[in-house]
TrEMBL record:
The lineage of its organism: Bacteria, Thermotogati, Deinococcota, Deinococci, Deinococcales. Keywords: Signal. It comes from Deinococcus proteolyticus (strain ATCC 35074 / DSM 20540 / JCM 6276 / NBRC 101906 / NCIMB 13154 / VKM Ac-1939 / CCM 2703 / MRP). This is PEGA domain protein. Residues 1-21 form the signal peptide. Residues 197-263, 278-342 form the PEGA domain. Residues 55-134 form the DUF4384 domain. InterPro entries: DUF4384, PEGA. It holds the Pfam family DUF4384.
């Protein structure tokens, strides 16, 4: 599964408290007013020092590391731009991993984990809180697992200040030298836009069809947008005329113009099948999502699917849609078939001969 960490632009509000009470500050969400001999460090994988504010783009993976100077229980939280608090640790995928041995670095997700942390928008500054305690804490008043199958707990407090207040209640009965906190910062930038080009095909006849890289775009005398840069074979078919074939080069942020003048009626030229080419139907619940195969855009999910004709070989399929995690799968194309990316395992290479394909 994928566990998403959402971007957070946090207010730097101070929470007033009585002398000796826990407070929040611009450096952390909750601060122990004493100086305990217990220490904890939390950092993100782009900054192992904890002194910088690295940038991650929306959809990019992130890993968190914690280290304590004494054996301790560690609890990790994230706060997003809307004030929603996410509990990263403990979770049911890393059972027992909230206990950290002294001077041992633990990373989440760990190597070969069954999940990832993927940064999600909106853009802005994020805070990840690590709370370390010599005693195991009960978070029942802050978070609960919705069902027996839930892998991450739902947090019932909202906002940085309320998280600080809730955690203050949890740690209040503890000796003040038995807990400590640390906060990691990272900035989130919007996803890098996919730069594409356009193709205009004009003809002097009606009912001409445009076939680009084996995929039917539609009729002539119009502009097609959202085409990945590259070189593509194109065929223009018009009733009563031999097909026109050529190669076009699509450049980013530019329109390639192709004008075809059909002259003289003739029997349509037979279409020679391309050996080793197959029709692949990509299915997904991301309607409107843009579909890429090995970096080339092949269409848009309409009514749950899109079909592309490609040669035999291995392809990485990526579907991107606004405000949705990308769907990714790798397939070996060796026959006509289809794949449902909403159900396919993300990191597995699948043959079209497998039963998953229809």
């Amino acid at each position: 599964m994928n566990k998403t960490i959402k971007a957070a632009l946090l207010p730097m509000t101070l929470l007033a408290g009585s002398a000796g009470a826990q407070t929040i500050s611009a450096q952390s969400i909750i601060v122990n007013p004493t100086q305990p001999d217990l220490s904890v460090q939390v950092n993100v994988d782009k900054d192992t020092t904890g002194n910088a504010v690295p940038t991650y783009r929306v959809g990019e993976g992130i890993r968190l590391s914690v280290k304590t100077n004494r054996d301790a229980y560690v609890y990790l939280f994230n706060v997003d731009a809307a004030g929603k608090v996410s509990q990263i640790l403990p979770n049911r995928l890393d059972q027992g991993d909230s206990f950290v041995r002294a001077n041992t670095v633990k990373t989440f997700p760990p190597a070969n984990a069954a999940y990832t942390f993927d940064v999600e928008g909106p853009a802005g500054l994020n805070k990840v809180l690590a709370l370390a305690s010599l005693n195991e804490l009960s978070l029942n008043d802050i978070s609960r697992f919705a069902t027996a199958q839930s892998q991450f707990a739902d947090v019932n407090v909202n906002g940085q200040e309320r998280l600080a207040q809730a955690l203050s209640i949890v740690v209040n009965p503890l000796p003040q030298n038995s807990w400590v906190s640390d906060t990691a910062f990272f900035d989130v930038a919007e996803r890098t836009p996919v730069r594409t080009g356009s193709l205009f095909v004009g003809t002097n006849v009606n009912n001409a069809s445009i076939i680009l890289n084996g995929r039917v775009l539609g009729g002539a005398n119009r502009t097609y947008t959202g085409i990945a840069p590259g070189s593509y074979p194109v065929r223009i078919a018009a009733p009563g005329f031999a097909d026109f074939r050529t190669t076009v080069n699509i450049a980013s942020d530019r329109t390639t113009n192709l004008n075809v003048d059909f002259r003289g009626s003739t029997a349509p030229a037979p279409v020679t099948p391309v050996a080793g080419s197959y029709n692949v139907t990509v299915r997904s619940s991301l309607n409107g999502g843009r579909v890429f195969m090995n970096g080339n855009e092949v269409g848009t999910i309409r009514n749950g699917q899109v079909t592309a004709s490609v040669p035999r070989g291995q392809y990485q399929i990526v579907i991107v849609a606004p405000n949705q995690p990308a769907e990714i799968a790798t397939i070996n194309v060796n026959r006509d078939g289809g794949i449902n990316l909403s159900q396919a395992p993300r990191t597995t290479t699948i043959n079209l001969l497998d039963l998953l394909f229809r």
